[in-house]
Specification:
With 126 residues, this protein is mainly α. It has two domains: 6-79, Orthogonal Bundle (434 Repressor (Amino-terminal Domain)), CATH 1.10.260; 87-122, no CATH class. It has helices at residues 6-10, 14-40, 44-51, 55-63, 70-79, 115-122; strands spanning 87-89, 94-97, 109-112. The protein has a three-stranded antiparallel beta sheet, with no helix packed on it. A hairpin with a 4-residue loop joins strand 1 and strand 2 (94-97). The protein is elongated, with a radius of gyration of 19 Å. The chain starts with 5 loop residues before the first helix and ends with a helix. Mean pLDDT is 81; it is low at 114-126.
Length: 126
């Protein structure tokens, strides 16, 4: 019999799994901000100036100490002349996305992300 990892035992609890997902989203968001800052060759001081905020505020965002709302993320990316594009993924590997340019008449999309995985693991043609 295979012993389950501590992680697997931990996420058996739905409340713990929910909190873990919250933390994952926070880490993903702050990493995305850092990547965009690197791409723009922008430091915290420059981002703070463009946002009309203090350097300490930007530092709180990057450390995960600031509760990031969607509005805050939109402000951060706007200050970097970028847009935040969001997608969602299901356990079966499907990706849900919405076109970021609302002025175009392009429908939202649902696409399989790992076609072979979906077919093998779920027994359905993706």
């Amino acid at each position: 019999m295979m012993t389950r990892s501590t992680y697997d035992q931990y996420i058996d609890d739905p409340e713990r799994r929910r909190i873990l997902e919250q933390e994952r989203v926070m880490v993903d968001a702050t990493e995305l901000v850092c990547n965009a800052m690197d791409f723009r060759r922008m430091n915290r001081t420059e981002l703070a100036e463009k946002m009309g905020r203090s350097k300490a505020y930007v530092t709180q965002i990057l450390r995960g100490n600031q509760n990031l709302t969607l509005r805050t993320l939109a402000d951060v990316f706007h200050a970097m002349n970028s847009r935040l594009v969001m997608v969602a993924a299901t356990e079966a590997g499907f990706i849900f996305s919405r076109q970021w340019n609302m002025t175009q008449q392009i429908p939202s999309a649902v696409v399989p992300s790992e076609r072979a995985y979906v077919e093998e693991e779920w027994g359905v043609a993706a």
